[in-house]
Design a protein that fits this description.
This protein has 199 residues and is an all-alpha fold. It is 81% helix and 2% strand. Helix 1 runs parallel beside helix 3.
């Protein structure tokens, strides 16, 4: 259990803490939730960098990094939907957000299943650029939406709500984009690697 793997696993308890803070009502809870999330998201980059520099890249690390990324992203998205983070201009788009989340969930299970089936046949399917981009956009979407709640509750006065509105709009746009990228990257995986499990 080296430092890179410890950083990878640390994202799970951080996710639970962030979700708890998202529902908390005490002062600055939204700010703490936002910055803890940023710390968790940064470990996704930092653990890989450390593993490569220290020559500690392992199959366990690669597997857990991918799994924990999915657990954190999907878990926090559910908390966003349930916590009222998709209210926009007087309307609640939680249902739309949930449908998109289900598309993301379906893709993740489908690709993970394909990877497992390929592994049984001795074939390793590595994450490609499209998969990395969709993860980057997913993490950004969550960060912008959490940031909007932080600004609204702890930093921006009501007479400057345009700032919160702008940040929130960017976050919602990135959320929709992340769903589109998740689906298209999943189709790309099956187009290139589907023959491994179909034969």
């Amino acid at each position: 259990m080296n430092l890179p793997n410890i950083l990878t696993i640390s994202r799970v308890p951080l996710m639970f803490i962030v979700v708890g803070l998202m529902y908390a009502e005490f002062p600055n809870a939204a700010t703490v939730a936002f910055w803890l999330y940023i710390a968790a998201a940064l470990t996704d980059w930092f653990d890989g960098m450390l593993a490569r520099r220290a020559n500690q890249v392992s199959q366990f690390g690669r597997f857990m990094d991918a799994v924990i990324d999915k657990v954190m992203v999907l878990g926090l998205m559910v908390a966003l939907i349930n916590g009222g983070y998709f209210k926009f201009q007087g309307h609640d788009y939680a249902l739309v957000a949930m449908v998109l989340w289900m598309c993301i969930l379906s893709r993740e299970f489908a690709v993970s299943g394909m990877r497992m089936a390929a592994a049984i046949r001795g074939v390793t399917i590595e994450a490609d650029t499209s998969g990395k981009v969709k993860t980057f956009v997913q993490l950004n979407a969550i960060g912008w939406i959490l940031g909007a709640r932080m600004l609204d509750r702890d930093w921006v006065p009501p007479d400057q709500s345009i700032i919160v509105h702008t940040v929130h709009t960017i976050g919602l746009g990135l959320y929709v984009l992340s769903a589109v990228l998740t689906i298209t990257s999943g189709l790309s995986y099956f187009k290139r690697h589907g023959h491994v499990v179909m034969n």
